[in-house]
Amino acid sequence: MTAYGYDDVFDEPSMGWARYAHTMRIWVYNSGFFYIRPTIPSIELLDRVAYRLAHETAWDQAVFNEELFFPSHPGYDGLFASRRTMDYYIFMNSKVLFKTVRKDGELRKKVKPVIVHVNYHPDKLPRMRAIVEFYVNGDQEALKSFPDGSEK
Which InterPro entries match (predicted)? Predict the structure, then answer.
């Protein structure tokens, strides 16, 4: 839902019949893994990101998403870059793997990711080794010893 977008409804009862405001929500893209085609809008996106990072103290992922998503408004010209969200079972992050896939017998058998971005867990190296053991070497027990999140 957060990867592909959803209808987020804000309820303001004092507005009477117009109390429900529907908004389209999508969580931000992780700039640790993405595919960018060499188009004029994507070059402009990266130029803007590079400029801001060279002149501001800012988090690269926040700057990337601001430049990608902020719409044009007075005093700001937005970009015309198109974006698509990849299949999160094929281009997976560690949250999806450790909280969902490893616990679902059908997904565990069916899902063969192209990449697993270990971005939700601080113990990256042991998890990466376990992921290789699981997907490359077939060790079905390799992922079991880890907690879902970063707790011990």
Answer: Nucl-diP-sugar_transferase, RRA1/2/3
Nearest Cα neighbor of 149 from 101, 92, 88, 96 is 96
**What's the rounded Cα separation, in Å, for the pair 125 and 21?**
44
Quote the tokens at residue 71: 């719409």
Q: How far apart are CA 145 and CA 62, in angstroms?
A: 33
Tell me the per-residue pLDDT of 89-128, one tens digit each, with 9 for 90 and over. Answer: 999 999 999 999 999 999 999 999 999 999 999 999 999 9
End-to-end CA distance of the chain: 28
Would you say the pTM of this structure is higher than 0.90? no
Using pLDDT thresholds of 50, 70 and 90, give the confidence band for residue 83: confident
Identity of the residue numbered 114: V
Closest by Cα among 67, 71, 74 to 44: 67
- With cut-offs at 50, 70 and 90, classify the pLDDT of residue 152: low
The pair of structure tokens assigned to 88 is 């999160």
Helix axes 60-69, 40-55, angle to 10 degrees: 140
Count of residues making up the chain:
152
Count CB neighbours of 93 within 10 A.
20
